Amino acid sequence: MQFKDIIEKKRDGGKLSREEIEYFISAYTAGDIPDYQASALLMAVYFEGLDREETFYLTDAMKRSGDVADLSAIPGIKVDKHSTGGVGDKTTLVVAPLCAACGVPVAKMSGRGLGFTGGTVDKMEAIPGFRTALGQQEFEEIVRSVGMSVIGQSAHIAAADKKLYALRDVTATVENIGLITSSIMSKKLASGSDAIVLDVKTGRGAFMKTLEDARQLAEWMVDIGKRSGKKMAAFITDMEQPLGNGVGNSIEVMEAIDTLKGRGPADITELSRQLAGYMIYIGGQASSFEEGIEKAERSIKDGSGLRQFRAFVEAQGGDPAITEDPSLFPQASVVLELKANGGGYVSALDAETVGKASQLSGAGRAKKEDPVDLAAGIILGKKAGDPVKEGDLLARVYANDEGKAKAALEVLESAYVIGAEPPETRPLIFEIIE
Fold first, then answer.
1. Model confidence over 169-212: pLDDT tens digits?
2. pLDDT at 360
3. What are phi and psi of 219, to 5 degrees?
4. Which of 47, 119, 203, 239 is most buried, judged by most C-beta within 10 A?
5. Per-residue confidence band for 113, with pLDDT thresholds at 50, 70 and 90
6. Is 168 one of the catalytic residues?
7. What is the CATH number of domain 79-160+168-323?
8. Active site includes 183?
9. Quick check: is 70 catalytic?
10. Candidates 3.40.50.300, 3.30.530.20, 3.30.200.20, 3.90.1170.30; correct CATH number of 331-419?
11. Annotated catalytic residue: which of 80, 89, 122, 161?
């Protein structure tokens, strides 16, 4: 098989066969196809596109380019949850304990944050002693004994994706629906769960800025998952403003704990109960989505979700006392306040700008190798629709460097728009694709 012929075929609008796609992935992963030829094919795909069948073939080949977890020894229907990323999105830390408390095992591999988007692994490492690097055997044993585990994604999972994404990043071929779908789903499918619930964000703080783009991505990912034999659903949810009030690593874990105690912000509480409800349903522990929501709510009210979280933290080496003593988390030495210059309503709160401010405070990273300040971040005092008087506290910035705190505060100020009238209310959940 001549790779030049494959490039020409896609360049001219042809449909690639399964064999051609598998050859590309296996040969490129092995180093037998040079970057300049792979770049040529990626650019051809960028302009000519992939149909859903080609995307399935690409996803499957990428999934099999590295380790594929076998979770069959763990009893029950294993359900994974994946978010396409946003600002203040700590739902995994709420949803997974609620599901586990209801008998649905959650075996989750997560990534680190990059840019203004936070990563679950970074958040969990804000807990003193918590280990995210576990071997597969220990990972499975914790899921069996505790009901859930969250670990960092292995470098050997979907090995082709890491290599291809780096090439896409430098060749301006990231934004293609087939390539995006295969990148996300190859890793999710390789993680070994039986069912996947997707949280596809849309709005200013999301990768997919428009509802139409988010819907297309959700539909494609659900389709690829179903073709792979998985139970699938996708929630399309709002990321116009941050989710919850906390943005940052320790800050978000503390807010997740508050939510498990029944006193979290309304938006994070509602989205968590909905996602957990569907996962409980798709995991076979509820006869309907509605019953799943009821069980998730009960796990908050009776404290079983919080107890599940404590057991999970302890099993992975963390100090469960953090659920009662926030002072055990890393602490910021610099706290700056943003106050309102006038009265009215918060007519807009730009999630992406808040995320960039949090990154500047030290909570995020510009490059994958950058360290993060686990204590840094932002707590929002006012969000879109809230009434404001002059001098009211809009937000606080937390950091361990005064220069970083001041830079974050300056950017954060531009995220707020104060107007005379409240804005139209946006739905938290736009639709569910099953």
1. 899 998 899 999 999 999 999 999 999 999 999 999 998 999 99
2. 95
3. -65, -45
4. 239
5. low
6. yes
7. 3.40.1030.10
8. yes
9. no
10. 3.90.1170.30
11. 161
